[in-house]
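Thread: sanity check for a docking pose with adenosine-5'-triphosphate

Original post by kr_44:
Hi all, I'm comparing my docking run against an independent structure prediction. Below are the sequence and the ligand SMILES. Could someone generate the full complex and paste the structure tokens? I mainly care about where the ligand ends up relative to the chain.
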Amino acid sequence: MSNYIKLINNFDSLKLNTFRNNIDSFIDEVNSGKINVVDAFYSLTEKEMAFRQDRVNKAMITTSHFPYVKTFDDYDFSYQPRLNKDEILDLKNLRFIQNNENIVFMGTPGVGKTHLAISVGIECAKNRYQTYFINCNELIMQLKKAKLENTLARRLKHFTSYSVLIIDEVGFLPIDGDDSNLLFQLISMRYEKHPTIFTTNKSFNHWGEVFNDSVIANAMLDRILHHCKVFSNYRSFL
Ligand SMILES: Nc1ncnc2c1ncn2[C@@H]1O[C@H](COP(=O)(O)OP(=O)(O)OP(=O)(O)O)[C@@H](O)[C@H]1O
Ligand SMILES: [Mg+2]
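Reply from moderator J.T.:
Ran it for you. Here is the predicted complex with adenosine-5'-triphosphate included:
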């Protein structure tokens, strides 16, 4: 067996896929004298690192449970001239995570609230922050089930542990007082610990109706809005 074949086998054993796929061009380039061996090796290792980074990014994005994958690059800000594009794109810097700031995307249906929440979430996931996307009603169902099964404390701890939690569609369906209290508990536990991103079609003065309890709604809003960026200047298409 030639050393070349042994080299290929070693790459396979070491799972160095990018080395394996680029070794021929590496050898050809070095042999031709176009590139010195240090630069060629550096380029090869950069390719391997990029491949691994991409694989981790994909895994982090998969575990974040996004309903679809769309980024800021897919968002057409010209449709939303009143949105502050710079302020939204600054979310990519993830300062809101360092500052434990919540984010609320508020607006009428179809304006891109979920899209933007996912775009922020993807940046978080790519930067290795444990991120999780969940629909508000699904979250409440899960907390209700946990309460019935006497595992509420554990479930709340689980949802509190995410570095970034995205709660989509707050207010799409009314929530009764007991269920609102479950969500309030979660928001209290995450308060000043980890940021939460919300999307909602209801302005804050309607949250009392949404949660069927103005006291809980106000207590929730106190905690959410204490450190929060609200994006609500969407142009409505309705
Ligand atoms: N400005 C935009 N640029 C590109 N795509 C957009 C834009 N606005 C909305 N979309 C697309 O339109 C679709 C609906 O957007 P999205 O689901 O984010 O709306 P929403 O505000 O969350 O609506 P809902 O209140 O019904 O949940 C998505 O596929 C989204 O990518
Ligand atoms: Mg939505």
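The chain has a mean pLDDT of 95. Hope that helps with the comparison, let us know if your pose agrees.
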